[in-house]
Amino acid sequence: MNLEKYKLEGELLSIFTYPDAVLSQVAKPVTDFNKDLKHLVKNMLFSMYHAPGIGLAAPQIGHSIRLFVLDVDFDREEVTTASGKEEYRWSGFNPMVFINPIITGTSGTSIHEEGCLSVPGVYEDVKRHQSVHVKFQDLDGNFHELEASDMLAICIQHENDHLDGIVFIDRLSNLKKNFYKKKMIKEKVR
Ligand code: NI
């Protein structure tokens, strides 16, 4: 199915932030490939592009199901219109949706700075596999396989972690992890 038309229409979903419980749950497989699922994906892409972020997993918007969207290719640029208004312009869309993904192979290692819409303000280097082989379903339930490397592979691993109740700060050293967890909890209470 063509995801292109979804890029800039939809509604903004609110994003859950750490330590909201949904972010630490193991998500359930998607079983119904129906209209509701397509509607959800459309709004997830819309919310991702507007955040902006390069990936968004269903648990981040409060749905504990095995689904994520991503786009590691788009650009967002701030422009000033003729009337002097600041607005954003998006280009180079390459939206992807992964349903019931399973990483079936990995190779190499790569260390790259990551951030997460559910852990605002935190950016840290995370060690991941340099490439992954992933099996997944699309919005119609059809099965696919993909060999991904570099940025796409990192993003797939980060989003796939969300489906297992793992946020990227869980992948840091105990010292850093505890520091950020305390900080996030404190900010949340305030
Ligand atoms: Ni994330």
CATH class, please? Alpha Beta
Taking all residues together, what is the mean pLDDT?
Answer: 93
Percent range for β-strand residues: 25-35%
Structural class: alpha+beta
* Count of folded domains: 1
Q: Can you identify the CATH superfamily? A: Peptide deformylase
Helix-residue proportion: 10-25%
- Rounded to the nearest angstrom, the distance between the terminal CA atoms is 44 Å
Provide structural commentary.
The chain has 190 residues and is α+β, with helices and mostly antiparallel strands. It is globular and about 50 Å long. It starts with 34 loop residues before the first helix and ends with a helix. The longest helix is centred in the first third of the chain and has 16 residues, at 35-50. A five-stranded antiparallel β-sheet has the order 1-2-5-8-9, sandwiched between helices. A two-stranded antiparallel sheet has the order 3-4. The model has no long low-confidence stretch (mean pLDDT 93). The chain is built from three helices and nine strands. The chain has one domain: Peptide Deformylase (Alpha-Beta Complex), CATH 3.90.45.10. The protein binds nickel (II) ion. The site of nickel (II) ion (NI) has 4 residues, from helix 2.
